[in-house]
Design goal:
The complex is a heterodimer of chains A (about 90) and B (about 220). With about 90 residues, chain A is mainly alpha-helical. Chain A contains four helices and no strands. Chain B is about 60% helix and about 0% strand. Chain B has about 220 residues and is an all-alpha fold. The longest helix of chain B has 27 residues. Classes of the chains: A mainly alpha (about 90), B mainly alpha (about 220). Chains A and B meet through helix 3 and helix 4 of A and helix 1, helix 2, helix 4, helix 5 and helix 6 of B.
Chain lengths: ~90, ~220
Amino acid sequence: MTTDETINCEEALRLLAEYLDGELHGGAHVGVEQHLKTCRSCFSRAEFERRLKAELSRLGGDDVKPAFEQQIRHLISHFASSPVRTSQGEEQ
Amino acid sequence: MLEPRANVQHYPPVAMNEPASDVGSWFERSVLGVLPDLVSTAQRLTRNATDAEDLVAEAVAKAWLGLTSLKERDRFRGWIFRILTNEFLATRRSQPSGVKKESLPDEGGGTEFSLFEQLHQPFLLWWGNPEKEFLDKLLREDLVRAIDSVHETFRIVVILADVQGLSYREIAEALGVPVGTVRSRLARGRSHLQKALWEHARDAGVIPRATHKDTKIK
C-alpha cells in the first residue's frame, strides 16, 4: 500500500465506510477522496465495497401484491372517512 | 386483516385545518409511494411474507393515528420507517418466552471480517480479478440469505442503511440510539453479512481454491 501527503491507508480504510455512506464531510472526505486517487489497493477495496452496497440496495422496493396494496388502500380510506371520535366515543 | 379500532380518534388533530379527505389523499399517496420499500424492509426484518404484511399494515395504522408527531411532511419516509422498526421491535419484545429469540452476539470490538481481503489477490492484478468475479456471480438469493443470517440488532441497521439508504441520523432517530451506536452496529452487521456471503460461496464451491486464505475469521 502507499501513503500520500494527507492520509495513509490505515486511516483511509478506517473512514471508508462513512465515506461510501455519504457521512463524511470536510477535510476527512477530501482526504479519503485524494487517497483513493493515488492508492490502487485502497481504490480496489472502495470499488468492491461500493458495488456490494449497490447490490444490497437492489433488495429494496419489492413488488407489492395487488391484494395487499388494496388492503392498505382500504385501511387508509376507512380511517380518512371515519368521523372524529373522542376517547369517550363521542362523534364530532 | 387489521381493522380500525372503535373509540379512537381517527382524524389526526394536526390536520384539523384541512378536510379529512385531503389529509387522507395525501397520506395514501405518501404511503403508496414508500409501500414497496416498507414491504421489502419488513420482509427482511421478519423473514416471513405474512408477518411482513401484518407489520406494514400495523405500521400504517400507527402512522395515521400518530400523524401529529410528523412535524414536516417531507420527512415522511424516515418517520414511517421509524414507526415500522419500532413496531417490529415492540412485537419481538412482546413475544412469549417460549418463542425462540436470537441471542445477541458480543457487541464489543474485534476484528471485522472483510470479504475483499479474503478474495483480493494483488499478484493477479493485471490478469485476474477474483473480487469482481465474485460480485458478478452474486445472486439476489445469496444476499437475502446472508442478510437473513445476521442477528436482528445488526440486521435492522444494515437494512436501513444499505437497502433503504437512510442516513446515520435517520437510523439513530428510528432506533432511538446514538449515531455512534449506529456506526458500530453497521460495521458489525456488514462484517457478519460479508462473512455469511464468504462461507456460503466457499461451501458452494463458487470461490476457487486458490483464493482461500488461511486466516481466522471472527
